Amino acid sequence: MKQLYISSDKKFLGVCGGLADYLNVDPTLIRIAVTCLAIYTAIIPALIVYVVLSFVFPQQPEGYTVVGSDKKLIKSQKNKKISGVCGGLAEYFGIDATIIRLIFALCVLFIGFGLAIYIVCLALMPSEPEQIITGNNNVN
Questions:
Q1: What is the pTM of this model?
Q2: Residue 67 burial (C-beta neighbours within 10 Å; 0-12, 13-18, 19+)
């Protein structure tokens, strides 16, 4: 049976990491959702809930291993128009990046918080690791 724990792989208190482990998703996705929720609720209510959850969730036992997906949410370098956020989300969810871009555009135009979500994603999503070129590059 799955257990919900405070994650040992934590950025702040381990709540987002624990939820990500339980839901089998990348912790960055949960961190983005929690940050957007905090912005939407004027930070204090979401922060209170977050801190309360850090006391409610039990600590992860020693030797506990999480069996999860190797899929990581990262900004795309090959499918980007501005910064790779939409391309990275599209690659993570396995859909066309145009759909993600359209969703962001509609959120900006009609709902009003699409730009804030994009900025949160830009700040929290790690970049794709640089490709390391190996081998002998000397030309004789």
A1: 0.77
A2: exposed
